[in-house]
Design brief:
Layout lengths: L16 H6 L5 H17 L8 H5 L1 H11 L10 H21 L4 H4 L2 H11 L8 H12 L12 H16 L9 H10 L1 H11 L4 H11 L26 H10 L16 H18 L9 H8 L1 H4 L8 H14 L2 H6 L12 H15 L4 H8 L8 H8 L21 H4 L6 H12 L9 H15 L7 H15 L4 H9 E4 L7 E3 L5 H21 L1
Antiparallel strand pairs: 1-2
Helix pairs in contact: 2-5, 4-7, 5-7, 5-8, 8-12, 9-10, 10-14, 11-14, 13-14, 14-17, 19-21, 21-23, 23-24, 23-25, 24-26
Pfam families: TPR_RPAP1 (PF25766)
Protein name: RPAP1/MINIYO-like TPR repeats domain-containing protein
GO biological process, one term: transcription by RNA polymerase II
Length: 535
């Protein structure tokens, strides 16, 4: 059984949906009716399901599903009722796939595609389709049959990839060589993960029962055929973070809006662990399903791990999983797309969240390296100086315990040191923290290198600048020259560039380059001349 030639051109949910459904040659009405008929037949006689495998294997259907798996439709209220029809067709095709994947090897080859379609369909479903969402959660989304990577060498491939990455970068982040093992454990825990999410969606049960009666045509129990009010999709686009965000809303925020760290509810650790396991699976094997969640939103949601309580992030399973997710979120391509200037959905700004994290770190971190890496991420040079000013200003005390080493940080140090800093207030804070000893290479290795790099570039800069800036340059350089701490003086004057494998994380010149030596000499001579004139 194969679709007719009219199916060779399929509309995609991104656009053209009105034309796709209303054109006389549209295959959707026929296929929807056919899908419903086949579903009814297979409910009566499950042994007949293999007879209908050709429908899913046909190139037009496969191509359509592949297009849907990559689509990002925009909800328009005026044509939402049309979307329901396409959602229903996709649901019927997925129902057929669910019956065939375990018994038909050719269909099983496309299991990952069907799983991807199910994942992208979930946040599209509108009020009145709760039963379809529940069915997808119960059958496909958390099924090991549809996550074929979990039993076909996927975790091993991840481990090999990380070993190759380690050879190239020589990172020693605690998460290396662990993601594969974490994925294996997550695949074993899929039934428990499903139970976790269904529990957090239990408040939708009345809507599920009502929509199921309407979907199955149980007229005696259907009170109205009017569609529910359309306020948006049933599930938020970031539903995989739901257990974590729900826990934060319960324990992390007080009525006054401040942080209120309380004892965790019973089962909270297990719930967070299952949530992180699921996020790890999606990040590694279903990255497309999370593309609707901006990177800044992912970072904000995962930050709840540190804000939910005073010790949740110290629990071993949470530590391992969060390290793994941090490594994935700080890959080169992810760092390039992470824009912290865009407010995460649900927050006024990322800076507000960051200030809460700083307060929590000072209160309960015990110098935890994972928490430290999380706080260092927004301090990259490309981001606003506001967060750096907060660290080196009102939260400067945390520098005494931010002991993350350059090797532990999976972000290239050059992202923090280049280009040269141009915020004069921040440069003054860098300088103050260095000369007062607050920022020391043993206590805070990463930011010590960052501060050295920017102060060094500032004092020896030859660029034309305003009088205030030039005066600050000269003043800093003179003070450095007269420092009694010879080690710090040497570091500030002879700093060359960051170097991951050196003792302090940077290289130094054997002696001042001629241009820099000349500048230092001129500034000192100018000072002496000024002193002589005053005398």
């Amino acid at each position: 059984m194969k679709p007719s030639p009219a199916c060779l051109v399929w509309p995609v949910m991104d656009g053209g949906i009105i034309q796709g459904w209303l054109l006389p040659c549209s295959p959707f009405p026929l296929l929807t009716g056919l899908g419903f008929l086949l579903d009814t037949i297979m409910d009566i006689h499950k042994g007949l399901c293999c007879k209908f495998a050709d429908l899913l294997l046909s190139e037009p259907v496969t191509g359509y599903l592949r297009s849907c798996s990559q689509a990002t439709p925009t909800l328009v209220l005026g044509r939402a009722w049309l979307l329901r029809h396409e959602h229903y067709l996709l649901y019927l095709l997925l129902r057929l796939a669910h019956r065939l994947v375990p018994v038909e090897p050719q269909i099983a080859k496309h299991a990952s595609l069907y799983h991807q379609v199910a994942l992208v369909l979930l946040p599209w479903l509108l009020p009145g389709s709760e039963s379809m969402a529940h069915e997808l959660f119960s059958t496909i989304v958390f099924s090991k049959d549809f996550i074929s990577e979990g039993h076909s060498g996927g975790p091993e491939a991840v481990e090999l990839g990380e070993l190759k990455l380690q050879e190239q970068t020589e990172h020693t982040s605690p998460s290396l060589q662990t993601v594969g093992a974490l994925l294996r454990d997550a695949c074993v825990q899929l039934p428990s993960i499903r139970g976790c999410f269904l529990t957090h969606l239990a408040h939708l049960e009345p809507s599920v029962l009502t929509s199921r009666d309407a979907l199955l045509g149980r007229s005696p129990w259907v009170k109205s055929h009017l569609l529910p009010e359309l306020t948006g999709p049933i599930l938020p686009s970031d539903w995989p973070f739901l257990p974590l965000v729900s826990l934060y809303e319960q324990t992390g925020v007080s009525g006054s809006g401040g942080l209120e760290v309380e004892a965790l509810p019973q089962g909270a650790l297990q719930s967070v662990t299952h949530c992180l396991q699921w996020l790890l699976v999606l990040e590694v094997w279903r990255e497309e399903a999370l593309k609707v969640v901006p990177p800044v939103a992912k970072l904000a949601r995962l930050s709840c791990v540190f804000l939910c309580s005073s010790d949740l992030f110290l629990e071993r399973p949470v530590q391992k999983l969060t390290w793994g997710l941090f490594r994935l979120l700080t890959r080169q391509s992810r760092l390039d797309s992470l824009d912290l200037n865009v407010p995460p959905p649900g927050l006024a700004s990322f800076q507000d969240l960051y200030l809460a994290l700083l307060t929590q770190y000072e209160a309960v971190s015990f110098g935890d390296r994972l928490f430290g890496c999380w706080l260092l991420l927004p301090l990259q040079r490309r981001y606003s100086a506001t967060m750096k000013l907060a660290v080196f200003g009102e939260h400067v005390g945390m520098l005494r315990s931010l002991g993350v080493t350059i090797e532990q940080l999976s972000i290239p140090i050059e992202r923090f040191t280049s280009p040269a800093e141009d915020s004069l207030p921040l440069l003054r804070l860098y300088f103050r923290s260095l000369v007062t000893g607050t920022l020391a290479p043993r206590r805070c290795p990463v930011l010590y290198v960052v501060a050295l790099s920017h102060v060094n570039a500032f004092i020896f800069s030859q660029d034309a600048a305003a009088q205030e800036v030039e005066t600050a340059r000269r003043s800093m350089l003179r003070k450095i020259y007269y420092l009694t701490d010879e080690v710090l003086k040497t570091h500030l004057l002879l700093f060359r560039l960051p170097q991951r494998h050196s003792e302090f994380g940077f290289d130094v010149y054997d002696q001042l380059p001629p241009i820099r030596a000349k500048r230092l000499e001129n500034i000192l001579q100018t000072q002496e001349s000024s002193s002589d004139q005053r005398d």
